[in-house]
Every structure is written in C-alpha cells, then in structure tokens.
Amino acid sequence: MSIKKAAPSIFGLLALYLILAPSPIDPVALNFPKLELADNEKLGKIEVLFPVVCQGCEDISFDGLGHLYAGHRDGTLKKFPLNGGSRLTEVLKFKGRPLGLEVMGDSMAWVAVEHEGLAKVDLRQGTYEIVVNSFNDTTFMLIDYLDVAGSGNVYFTDASDAYGDDDLQYDILQGRPNGALYRYLPATGETERLVDHLHFANGVVVDANEAYVLVAETGAFRIKKHWMAGPKAGSTEIFIEGLPGWPDGISRGSDGLVYVTLISPRTSMHDFILPRPWTRRLVTKLPKSFLPKPVKENRILALDETGTIVHDWMNKTPDFSSISSIERVGDYLYFGTLDEAGIGRIQVPE
Fold this sequence. Notes:
Blueprint: H1 3-20, E1 47-49, E2 60-62, E3 67-71, E4 76-81, E5 89-93, E6 98-104, E7 108-113, E8 117-122, E9 127-132, E10 134-135, E11 138-139, E12 143-148, E13 154-158, H2 168-174, E14 179-185, E15 190-198, E16 201-206, E17 212-217, E18 222-227, E19 236-240, E20 245-252, E21 258-265, H3 268-273, H4 277-283, E22 298-303, E23 309-315, E24 323-329, E25 332-337, E26 343-347
Antiparallel strand pairs: 1-26, 2-3, 3-4, 4-5, 6-7, 7-8, 8-9, 10-11, 12-13, 13-14, 14-15, 16-17, 17-18, 18-19, 20-21, 21-22, 22-23, 24-25, 25-26
C-alpha cells in the first residue's frame, strides 16, 4: 500500500486515539484578564557571568560581602565572586535541585530543595538539614521559592501538591489551584499554611515589617497579597492581575520596588485553550515533546506598593532568557535562569 493510500487510515487511527485515550489531566475552564501593555525594547543585551560553571541556576542570593550564591541544576550550591570570572566555591550538594534561595550573611542560608524540602544550610561547615517537607497529610511535591523576614520566619511556596518538576506542564495545563503559601517559624519549628488553592505558587516577597507577603501565581498571570497584620490580617487580595506573561521570581529591590520576572510571554494559543478544557485534554494525550514550551522573550516589571507598574522592560529576541529570578543591587539587575547557562547581569535601564 502506498503512503498516499495509507494516510487516511493513519490519520483515522490517530483521531480515534485522541478521542478514546484517557488524558493524564482533568482540566477546568479558566478565564483570566489581560493587561494591554505595549511592546518595547528597553531591556538591552544581558551580560552573562559564570557561563561555564553555572547551568540552570534558578535562584540567586547575595551575602553582602561581595559574593553571589546560586543553586546549580545538578544539586550543587555554589559561591561566586561578584567581580566575575569563573572562580567558585562548591559549598555542598543536595540530593534534589536547589530552587528558592536566601543567604543570611556568610554563616547560613535557606534553600527550597526539590524532592527534599526546606533546607537550613550551614555555609561554614558545608552541611544542611531538612526542617520540613510536608504539612499535615500533604507532602511538598515542588517546594519552589522563599523569602526570609527580619524576624527570621521563612515564607515559601509549594508550587503544586499534585505534580512534581517533571510534570509541571501538566499542572499548568490542568489549571487547578494545587499550590500553597507556607510560613516556617524557626523559633518553634512549626509550619503554617497561609494561603491555599493557588495556581502554581511561585515567587515570594515578604514586607519588611511582616505586615503582608506577596506570592506569584504563575498559572493565573497574577500576584496575590496576603495580610498578616492590621485590619485585613488573615485576608488575601489581588496585588496585580492580567500580566502579559508567566510571573516567576519576585523580589524587593534596593530602591523599594517589587521586581517581577515574566519567564515567558502569554500567547494567543494559551489564551485560546484556557477556557476550552477539551483542547488541553487532547494535547496531553500526545508525547511530552508536543506540549507547549516557554517562548524565548524577556520581560521585567517593577511595581510600587499599590501594584502599579513603574517600569516595564522587555527584549523580544534575547540571547539569555528563561529568567526565573531577579535581584537589584545598586544600579544593576542580576538574573537567575531556569535552564540556560550562567547568571545574567545588566545595568538598570533608564
């Protein structure tokens, strides 16, 4: 039989498979607003530091003594001199991939370690202990990001309690709020769940006075604000919504603004499939290589205390992309990346 004659049978079998085969997800219809922000090219070329020795260094942190720390995708926590070059110190190696990271001077750090939990690290001894890896009957599937308050309390997210890192696309495509925001209290060893039912909980920023905490909902294109003090204590509200991309890392800059990385733009295809669960069921029946992938485009937002956009910088054709974390130090922005090589650095755009 010729290929031409066989084609209808092949396509018929494929159609039958897509109709009858079970989907690995049970999606729900979603509708999220979208801000109409004009494109721009204000984010210039990013300098790449440590490209040979830092691969997939998702989050970064500084010790205030001239060193930058980052977690390598192979599980290694590394320490670099801020003046560049390839010199480094390997502090220790985790069993899982280090994601969220906060260094506290030169003595200790907190790290969200995939497959392990929240780790307290002794930087001088090169050792660590997992202080918590579950809450009640929920094991953290993808402990993701964290921030540390002045009190020492650690705020962290579990992106999903249904899917791990290998299946995170399923979590996004399913569209169910499987994530949560937690607080760990080192003084007592207790863990509290502050906000539940988040759409892929990601970046975290806690207010200097611990009056509130901000948490990025990657799957909902928004950032939420949870109050811990004052008349709104215990309540959660939207800080900003309708973002033109997937919010990942958020941080407080040295200028007081909240910086947000949009790891990939929001595409018309995704806006089409969001309210149509059947389209997402179909696509997840195909091999994972067919699932939607992040688009290489950089966009950084800076927000004030009201959630108003103060700065909007983007680059539609970057060499260094997949920006997953951001830190402003003086006149420079530093970037971690989900899957590329090195640490990004650029002077703050005008």
